[in-house]
Amino acid sequence: MLLELFPLVAKGYLEGKRKAEFESKREENRGKIAAERAAIKRTGKLKIRDLTLRDGQQSLFATRVPQHEIEKVLPLYKDANFYALEVWGGAIPDSVMRYLNEDPWHRLESIKEVIGDVSHLTALSRGRNLFGYSPYPESVIEGFNKNAVKSGLGIMRIFDCLNDVKNMETTIKYMKEAGGIADCAVCYTVDPKFTKKQRWKALLSGKKLPKKIFDVDYFVNKAKQMEALGADMITVKDMAGLIPPSLSGKIVKRLKKETNLPIDFHTHCTPGYGLGAVLMAIVNGVDVVDTCMLNFAGGPAAPSFELIQIFADKLGLDTGVNLESVVAINKELKGIRERIAEFDSYKMFPLEFDITADYLPKEIDALFDKAIELAKADKEEELLATCHAIEKFFNFPAANEEVKAAEIPGGMYTNMLAQLKALGLEDLLPTVLEKVPEVRVAAGCPPLVTPSSQIVGVQAVNYVLDVNSGKAPYTNVNNQFFNLVKGEYGETPIDIDPDFRHKICGQSEASDFDVNKYQSPENPVLHEFGGMKLAENEKEMLLLELFPSVAGPFLRNRKADAYYAKVNAEETEKQRIIEEKKAAFAAISAEEKYEMLLRGLYSLAGDSKQAADEITQPEEKESKLDIKTKEMLTAQKPKSRLVS
């Protein structure tokens, strides 16, 4: 009735009333929910590695969350008490310089300053390749890991795109020597899938296609090799989200039985397996799982912490996380997500859910119980359907069926599509997807993880473009594919045909990367900025070594800012002294001014050096020379932003 009589006034009144009633109900629920949680008999522990500030923002927002936004949630994260926080590595060092004009080392150090020793800070690196495409010399690998730990890193997650354990050996060594934890990742990948036509063609040509390569034994054996090299923990790293729940459970169960290390499970939600795969890992005894906060979870990112916490409560597992802090973090993250909306790949916010104050509808709560029972019974198909229903209620993106069918990482899929669209040939994508397994097998069947997934994807596009234009396959070969086939990336899961290697590289035998060919980037003296060097310390030099094309302009801008700040400070100090002298002159009496004037006149005749030293010349205006100098400096000063 009120809405009909007074629509404008009544709407605001009723909305306020309903909101107040809702918050009052929430406050009442908080006490009940807290009591119910306190009554849970916890029979085990489940540690949580939060990925929000690295993998979460990288997966959903192209690593565009700036430092000042990060700082808003750090005190809340300190109170949250997560086992670990992934905050660095991956695309962070490159992106914060390239897009945000920020210092990667400062980001890590500032996070450590707030978090302290409450949670381990973790990062991701590619073993001896670190962040690049080619191996680095020992001095660079040692310097990077040593400085990472010194700047606050606790755990380095180390992986290799070929699962070649030898490529991880030196990083393990240097991390442990520096006092850090070596978390060695076994990269999950799937076997290439061939069409019947491809199998018949291979059979007729006398070349056998590989059968099962990446089975449970493969991943377990890789983990054992890492343990033998000194790994402190093992992560099953499913970067593409392709591991189905049943298999995640089997791998975790074997690893817990056959190794003596803590096991972490990492996956993404793109193809729709993520939540079910994490639950199966938990049911089978995993020690740590990777999650993101509600507002930075789902889709290409990892599963939501809140959903995993509900499962943990029902299973009697203690995560040790302060849930009041989680609610506060999520509130801040929602605001951050709204402010970086231009980089939001989904623009699809999850349901607003306060885990400390909101009861789930009975039918949704029952889905969590059902999912646990299905996981224990290893009924994968029903488990996935149940998990999808849970995710739909929370308004997370649905499974990407194209990526699921293609069985390749989402990033690889979108990169290939973008490459074809740029040429106006996106209709060739199905053909490219058909050629991916063939190109992959020819290159030794590398796991589909950065950077090998991108290398194979680009070459598959080149293959189809060659054939489409009437050329022979592999007429155009990208440099990274050449190096991969040559052997410079390391040992591939299966042997590369010597004839194929000779066709691509001009040699039949594999050859490792010659580190002696490595050349450090130039570190010039910047004469225009007072003679300082582009990289003035080890950390800046490491940025140049690892990201030469990005760090060069970034460091130059920093040096320009520092130089002109110094010039401005010196000018300000000179002006301050002049103003002080002016004020002192203005404060003296007329008689004293008259006496000073007389002494000045005498000094002009050369009679009194002392008088000349004592005189103060009050100058009201700048000289033309000073004005000209300032104009010149202003014209020379570059804009303080990164230039490509």
Automatic annotation (TrEMBL):
UniProt cross-references to InterPro entries, sorted A to Z: Aldolase_TIM, Carboxylase_cons_dom, PCB-like, PYR_CT
Segments forming a coiled coil: none
Residue ranges, compositional bias (Basic and acidic residues): 618-630
Positions of the UniProt region annotated as Disordered: 609-630
Source species, domain of life: Bacteria
Occurrences of domain Pyruvate carboxyltransferase (ranges): 46-327
Listed CDD domains: DRE_TIM_PC_TC_5S (cd07937)
Protein name stated in the entry: Carboxylase
Organism, as annotated: Marinifilum caeruleilacunae
